[in-house]
Amino acid sequence: MILDRSTAPEFQIPKEISFPTPVIRTLSNGVPIYFIPTPEIDAIKLEISAVAGLPDENFDKKLVPSFTLQMVMEGTKTKNAAELDDFFDTYATEVEPQLGFEHQGLSILTTKKHFKTVLPVFRDLLTEAVFPEKELVKRKKQKALSISIHKEQNGHRASSLFRKALFGENHLYGQIAEESDVDMFSREDLEEYYHKELWTNPEIFLTGNIEEDEMNIIIEAFENLPVRHTQLSDPEAFNIPSHKIREEKEKSVQSSIRIGCHMIPKTHPDYHYLLIFNTILGGYFGCRLIKNIREDKGYTYGISSSLGGLKTADYWAVMADVIKEFSDKVIEEVYLEIQKLQQEPVPSDEMETVRNYMVGKLLTQFSSGFDLIGRFKSIHQAGLDFSFYQAQLELILSFNQEDIMAVGNKYFKEENMVEVIVG
């Protein structure tokens, strides 16, 4: 049979996504392993993820968790920093700290061939780090300089002030690091956190070409990990309605803008409709905000909106760097575009463009085994499973104009918004 290459293949949108069910094993110390086998890839990725944050009484030592994870590669009881770097480089292995508001941990990516060799050294990073004082002093100086530089960057400063306004300065997610914070903790604080707090409610996420003997090695390596299991309450967060912050910088030619408010979490039945609304408004390059504020008016090179990824305190935000004198006008236009979506039906051709874009984007998120485990981890930690993505696909394929207007009127209220302008 000869293919007719003059005719493009028929365009088809899938109606469902098939996901593998993760294999779940629970170690004797209560740590669960979630494993997605990928025998076609001779590589292995393992990530141990724990709950982030410090006890309330250590609020002034907010940098301790990130410093602890970033310093585990500075030396263990058996290898110094240079030896660790050489070892992992020799075996083509990547070790990365995973830092986030809600979860933190370490990941390792290596070849199947070298996995049994590198795993014991990786395991030592979890309990045998020594935190050399000399390296701590060096990292503190670097961090203080980094904080100072970021404060002068409009975008970084605007994001920090936005989080502070959204969550409050006493909330884990609303803290802003200052140069003085690097002097608020010592090496002993890192050691205490490392041994008593770091591995709180840990989980292991695993993918790759793993056979039973390798799984047994993993179980043996981690079932004696000292862990802390505790029932944690999710912190509540409510932004101050109609809260406006403006930080002037005379020498700036641009201003960084942040507009947003708290939104519903992924577990809410309206979440997928909210995602569609956001995509039309500011979630892709052909969105309403780009066409209006970038292409029609030329106020900015780029503007976008997005939904945050937190478990119980999800939020929505618009971000843009704009010509300084048009800052207020840009904010007006953002609200204008929201109002249009609330009051006017989206044209059919625009709906189909968004529908096709969102289906394509959803499918590209699962192009490899590593993508699969990453997506599983994000929804699992939000209290969901892979059915979340099937539900998302179904709503993308079926949403209508009334759905868009309804979700817009329900959740996007100007009086609830926080506005930040820096520049």
Question: Could you explain the architecture of this structure?
Answer:
The chain is α+β, with helices and mostly antiparallel strands and 423 residues long. It folds into two domains: 23-222, Cytochrome Bc1 Complex, Chain A, domain 1 (2-Layer Sandwich); 246-422, 2-Layer Sandwich (Cytochrome Bc1 Complex, Chain A, domain 1), CATH 3.30.830. The chain has helices at 64-70, 81-90, 115-127, 133-152, 154-167, 187-196, 212-222, 271-283, 288-296, 327-343, 348-364, 369-380, 387-398, 401-411, and strands at residues 23-26, 32-37, 43-51, 94-99, 103-111, 203-208, 243-247, 254-262, 300-307, 315-323, 418-422. The strands form two sheets. A six-stranded mixed β-sheet has the order 1-2-6-3-5-4, with helices on both faces. Strand 4 (94-99) and strand 5 (103-111) form a beta hairpin. Helix 8 (271-283) packs across helix 14 and helix 10 packs across helix 14. It starts with 22 loop residues before the first strand and ends with a strand.
